[in-house]
Amino acid sequence: MYPTTGILLAxxxxxxxGRDKALIRWDNQTFLQRSIGKxxxxxxxVILVTNEAGRYRTDQIREATDIxxxxxxxxxxxxxxxxxxFDWAFVTACDMPFWEASVVHELMxxxxxxxxxxxxxxxxxEPLFSLYRRSCLPAIESCLNRNILxxxxxxxxxxxxxxxxxxxxNKGCISSRSFSNINTPDDLSEMAKD
Length: 194
Fold this sequence. Notes:
6 helices, alpha/beta, two-stranded antiparallel sheet, Spore Coat Polysaccharide Biosynthesis Protein SpsA, Chain A, 8-stranded mixed beta sheet
């Protein structure tokens, strides 16, 4: 297990899905349960971040609620990292339930003199499937205080390492499903076809 915090963001409105994405069932588990289970296998601490305390019954893990309410995923990252006891935190969202542990291992190998390790898959950075160091908190707070809510908004203020995942994707070591967001009923239907 890594001496790192796994942070799961589950505070979204799910407006495009029309129902709470965290509670969608897949293979007899909710998206929430699926991600929590994987995080618990990898990290010494797991924190679930929601916008409403007690929204989900998760007795087995810590819960944090937004400090900057209504500030989206960046506010969630801030809440989770503020509650974290470790220097590094791996952040993912409950609407990305198909990620593989091998991707996390690749990210963990890249931890060194950076503040953030962000995977790039098929030329797209994945800020909600990334590692962040506690040193990012002042930059995140600066953005939140100025109402800059895009997750990547604080990147110019910290040292970011963009980790190209193309080689391991091409080798078939991981599935591109690891980076799939399920935002709409159509996304869910497409995933069921694979």
